[in-house]
Amino acid sequence: MQLVIDSNCLRDPQTRKYLAASTDNHVVFTDYLGMELYKSSSFSMLADLLNQVAEFPQQVIVLKGTREICQLDDPPLGATGELIDRRTTSEFPEFCRCLATQGAENNPILNHFHASAASAANHLDEMSAVFADIQVDIAQVANELPPSGLRQLRTRQPLSAEMGRHMQRNIYTIAGIFFRAHGIAHPGETVAEYGHRFPFRHAVVAYMMALGWIATGGAVGKSGDKLRNDSVDSVLVTYATYFDGVLSHDKKLNELSAAADQALERLFGVKVGPM
């Protein structure tokens, strides 16, 4: 099993239990997690944050940067493998040994994590701006929902075929915004061609997040830290669609992950999980 780990699980004993249960159990590190790691004010704090997973360094998968991943256009069957930074993943055990001896300050992998975290922070700023822009579209989504669809969302009823078609149209619109935000003018003609690409899956996640706001009567028009947090959550859940899910204590995040998987498979026929 391969689970994308949320920062709130790094020091959780259950994470250690999960890794100790089988050598086939892995945690997946994203560059956005790197941002959380480098909020640490000291090297000792970083070592403390990674203490649990450092016991199982061979079971950590490190991904490429999100900015690079957004540009990938490989066949669907190779999608998951293309996300992995194999060099950094292979060097992670050595990095953990350096952590244990307090000698990682000049380790190349530490420099890599610093660079990835900086790139992720820049990407987050860009995507937060995109999120702010698409809130106008999301507000329009709320206004255009069929009354029966809104009722289905708020009472957690099964969604009708009409609501499914409505969701597809809106997701296509948001996907176009996300592709253009990454400089991709022609991602492909059909979902079969671009359903594995990160910006499309991110659009699905963002849309399902918006429906969650609408279903609970939450305000559309977030700003500041709340908008950044939603941006981080949406990226984490997008990565989870390429693996076996997310490892998190956040109930809403887990619900969003399940909803995104269902939307990809049922609305677009896109297979989720490792490929």
Give descriptors for this structure.
single chain, mainly alpha, four-stranded parallel β-sheet, 4 strands
Write down the secondary-structure element order. EHEHHEHHHHHHHHHEH
* Global geometry: globular
Q: Which stretches of 5+ consecutive residues score pLDDT under 50?
A: none
Overall pLDDT score: 82
Report the β-strand fraction as a percent range.
Answer: under 5%
Helix and strand content put the structural class at mainly alpha
Assembly state? single chain
Q: Helical stretch count?
A: 13
Share of helix, binned: 55-70%
What does this structure look like?
With 275 residues, the chain is mainly alpha-helical. The chain has two domains: 2-115, no CATH class; 123-238 and 249-268, no CATH class. The protein is built from 13 helices and four strands. The protein has helices at residues 13-21, 31-37, 43-49, 66-70, 79-83, 86-100, 108-144, 147-154, 161-181, 191-194, 198-215, 224-240, 251-268, and strands at residues 2-5, 26-29, 60-62, 246-247. The protein has a four-stranded parallel β-sheet with strand order 3-2-1-4. Helix 9 (161-181) crosses helix 11. It is globular, with a radius of gyration of 19 Å. The mean pLDDT is 82.
